From TrEMBL:
InterPro entries per the UniProt record, alphabetical: YjiS-like
Protein name: YjiS-like domain-containing protein
Record domain YjiS-like: where: 31-63
Lineage start: Bacteria, Pseudomonadati, Pseudomonadota, Alphaproteobacteria, Hyphomicrobiales
Domain of life according to the entry: Bacteria
One Pfam family this sequence matches: YjiS-like
Length: 84
């Protein structure tokens, strides 16, 4: 059986602090996105069916629209006011 001789110096690791910081930034960003989705979802559920129809979504599409905010569920993009 062999014995290891000597000691290893345990000093501050410079690589772990940025990783931990990055983790918390990603976590905070995800938390904020979840709050935005929940707010949008609540605001859309507060609208009447007529108001939802005016903006082009059905009540059954609210969850999809809230979780995919950057995607237009009907594939229709509003025109730029300068190009009208």
């Amino acid at each position: 059986m062999s014995t290891a001789h000597g000691a290893t110096a345990l000093g501050p690791t410079t690589g772990s602090a940025p990783r931990v910081s990055s983790f918390f930034k990603r976590y905070w960003g995800a938390f904020q996105e979840q709050r935005k989705r929940n707010k949008l979802r609540g605001d859309l559920f507060d609208l009447t069916d007529r108001e939802l129809q005016d903006i082009g979504i059905a009540r059954g599409e609210i969850d999809y629209v809230a979780s995919h905010r950057s995607i237009d569920p009907r594939g229709i993009r509003s025109a730029d006011p300068m190009n009208v």
